[in-house]
Structure formats: structure tokens, C-alpha cells
Amino acid sequence: MAQLEPRSRRGPRLFQVLLLPLLFHFFQGRDFCAAKAGGPARQSQYRTWRSTPPVQRAALPILGDTLQLLNGKTMSSYQVDGRRKFGNVWKTSVLFKKAVIITGAAELAEAMKQESRPNATKAFFPPHHQRLFGTQSLLMQSGPPHRKLRRLVQAAMIPKAVSSYVETINEGVSEFLEKCKSQDGPFSMVEMLRTATVTTMLKILFGRQASASEIKNLIEDVSTWSDGLLSAPLTFLPWSNAARAMRARARVAKIIQGWIQSCAEGDGTLLSRLVFTEDEDGARLTKEEIVDNVFTLVFAATDTTASSLSSSFLALSRHPDLQQQLREVCSEEDMETVDRNLDAFLSEVLRTSPPAPFAMRLVEEDLEVSKVPVPAGWLMVYGFAGTLLCDAERYPQPKEFLWNRTFSDGQGQSLDEAAFGGGPRMCPGRFLAAQVAKTVLREVLGPGGFRWELEPGQDLSQRYTPGLFPVDGLQVVLKK
């Protein structure tokens, strides 16, 4: 497998992240925008700032809490601190817009329920993200276009479809194990996991016909594209991360378009399913829709999958008794028992180290969440991290890592909903991501796996880059 350069050396610099909102505002010459879907915001009875309860937190004039929310160091801690000071819901401003931050399982459920109302909310992303993901991405679409697109895309990602990718996933995990076992000294588990997940996802997408050199080039371009997600939008500077990301996107899009032309129906690849799936009206995805959603569901998903796996290795390192318990489970022949235990463990990993800490929606009609009015034109920020890390009613003893928490949890899939975005916009790639993660853990912890120990003296604190990873890359040494 092609090894990625350590992200700590090539990731976006903090000053770029901090400049992002200012540069968008002044260089774009317009406000931050939502994806184009639907008409202008509806008239609001809460038209003025004065007619709503006062803002409870605003760190800076104009910018408000933008820097805390977008900073990879503070994305989660900002929500935890705000919840402790102001309660589950508070008002501020984010990205030059007045905003309501929403935490708490009950409050999130109430807010997400509003999304079922026609024209109540729509997707919200800065223009730079729209260009990186593409305007036809599920992330950018809202209303009927989103629902139609989701039906087509989801058909390629349902559990039945994911089961057809198992052989490819197993091959990718076997390569990962061999690569790890070949290391003589310390190595970064984060970079090993990122390389393995990207390689595996590319093979699921294109099949075995993709050559090793093509895979290597794609890995490098996808990595460059990913760096652009948290970079300042300096696309007018050819050497900036943003400009490099856009050029990488163009190269990858060209490759995908070529594969679409030669794609054969029923060849077992994810790309084939995306190309030939039809809805009840016989409509298929356009070439642009396929390209944009490959970036969304495949390439972006590799970072979150690698993030959940690196957090899993970190948790297992900190809890050796749990590691031994799961090794015994993974030695059993009853796969249903193994899957059930790994599902429970991964659920707790996602709760304590959420790879996607928040999401934003632009309100188009006046709403109310937890008795707090949210006028049209405001942002609703779903505080997933503040919920998963703090909501003691939903997650008793939230500061504790209780790996089998879901065994006695009678509240269904609420945890997974919060970890994967929740509501009608829940990530359709969650089944594929879970399958990859469980396969890695099952093989590493099983009889043919390996044991490891952490290198001393490293920084194990985690930071969003954009996925959540240990600062020093989780340096490990395998036990012989």
C-alpha cells in the first residue's frame, strides 16, 4: 500500500483555519451561502435581533464563536463548555450569521424533526466546500432534490449492497495486517489506517481493474483534496492548500468520468451500482451527481472511518483489560456474537470520539427548538459532540468509557443517529464504514492479528484535521 505523508506535516495550518471566515467574507464579496435549493428565506416574525432573547455567548464582534467552532482543537470542547455555561441551547453568531447551538438528545431530535417540514431548512456550507464536494452532492442538496438523490445513492450503500463488497474489504484488511507486521520499529497507526481505508474504498469503488499506479495517484490526490476542507479558500494563490485541493479534485473527477464510460452493469463495483441504479420512475444518476457523491460518500468517508479506527486503537491501548476481553470474543466462531460486541464497542468509540462534531442548517421558516425561537435566516448548529459527551440523561456516566453501554440501552439507534448526522440527512455510507471498521478490529484482535504498545512521550490528545486523530499520529510498536 502507498504510505501517506504524515498529516501533521502536510495538514492545514491553524492560521489558515482562523482566516477562513474573514477571507470568504471579503474576497468572495458576498455572505456565506447555502446550497442553491428552494427560494429565498421566508418572512420572519422574529425579523430583528432585539425581538429574540439576547445572545448568550459571542466571543468576538461579528465573528461570534466562529473561530472556536471551526478550530480543530476546540470543535468539541467549545460545545462542552457552552452547554455547561448556558444549558442545552444557546444563541451566538457563526460565519457572519446569527445562530442557535443545539445540544442534548431530546433537543436534537426536536430540531431534526423540523427537517421533515417542507422548506423549513436547507443545507448550509461555505462556497469553498460547495466547490470541493460539488453542487450535486447529497450534502449540498435540500428538499425534493435531496430526497430523490438520496433514494438513488442509498441503493448502492444499503446492507445488502455492502455485503457484496466483503471480499474486497477482507483483502484490504489483509494487506493492512501484513503492512503493520512488516514494521520493525515505531510507526504511525493513524497514517497506516488512513492509507488502508483509502485503498480499500478505491477498490470497492473501481474494482480490481484499477492498477497499483492508479490507486497510488488517487490516494495522493484524495489526500490533497481532503487537506482543502479545513484550509482558507485562497484558490487565487496557486500554491495554497485550497488551490491544490481544487486541482486534485479535477484530476480525480476526470478519472471517475472515464471509469463511468467503461463501467459494466453487474460488475460488482460500487461505481456500477451508482451508474445503473434506477428509481421508481426509471431515472438514473447523472454523471455529475455520481462524481460529486463519490467525493462525499467514498473519499470523505475514508477520513471518518480512519478516525473511528484510530480512536478504537487508542481506547484499546488505554483499557488493556477490555482489549483482552475483545480478543477472546474475536476468537469465537459465532460471528453474530463477535459483530454484536464490536458494534457495541464502536458505538462507544463514536460517542466518546465523534468524528463529525457538528452540522449546520440554514433556517428558511421560523422555528422553535426547546422554546427558543429560531428565525428565518438564522443557522441551526447541531452540537453532536456536546450531546454525545455530556448528555447524562441519554448516556448515564457520560465521562466513562462503557463499551457495552448499548447492551442495556433500550432507546434504539439514537446513538448511531447522533454519531452519523441524524435525521433525514443521516449518512447513507454508515453501513459501509461500519463493515470496514469491524473487519479491521476483528482481524487485528483475532488469532491472526497482532499486539501493540504505545510509544512513550507522544501527545495523545486528539484534534480534528478534518477527522479526529491523535496529534502525534498514534505512534505504536508491535509486540513480537
Automatic annotation (TrEMBL):
Keywords (A to Z) from UniProt: Heme, Iron, Metal-binding, Monooxygenase, Oxidoreductase, Signal
Q: Report the Gene3D superfamilies cross-referenced here.
A: Cytochrome P450
Q: Which PANTHER family match?
A: CYTOCHROME P450 26 (PTHR24286), P450, PUTATIVE (EUROFUNG)-RELATED (PTHR24286:SF384)
Similarity comment text for this entry: Belongs to the cytochrome P450 family.
- This chain's protein is named Putative cytochrome P450 120
Q: What's the name of its gene?
A: cyp120
- Say which species the protein is native to: Symbiodinium microadriaticum (Dinoflagellate)
BP-aspect Gene Ontology terms? sterol metabolic process
SUPFAM superfamilies cross-referenced by the UniProt entry: Cytochrome P450
Which domain of life does this protein belong to? Eukaryota
